[in-house]
Design a protein that fits this description.
single chain; mainly beta; two-stranded antiparallel ribbon; about 60% strand
């Protein structure tokens, strides 16, 4: 199973999307700044050992951090 995260970047500055569990542990991190400006979608594979539940998605660009939550279901 996977979750698809839509996002937009204003430029090609270094940026990362992170998936964290409810306890704040980093599950996956992907570099996305190289995708350049515009709208994008990124899929995270849930993988083994990642149970259903509430997760946090963070988009980091320099000092800027945008957050949202996502629920992963079976």
């Amino acid at each position: 199973l996977s979750v698809t995260i839509p996002f937009a970047l204003p430029d090609d500055s270094p940026a990362w999307i992170e998936l964290h569990d409810a306890l704040g542990r980093l599950i996956q991190r992907r570099e996305v700044g190289s995708l350049g400006p515009g709208r994008h979608e990124l899929s995270f594979d849930r993988g083994p050992g990642v149970p259903p539940g509430l997760y946090w998605v963070r988009l980091r660009r320099g000092a800027e951090v945008l957050r949202t939550s996502v629920s992963l279901l079976d």
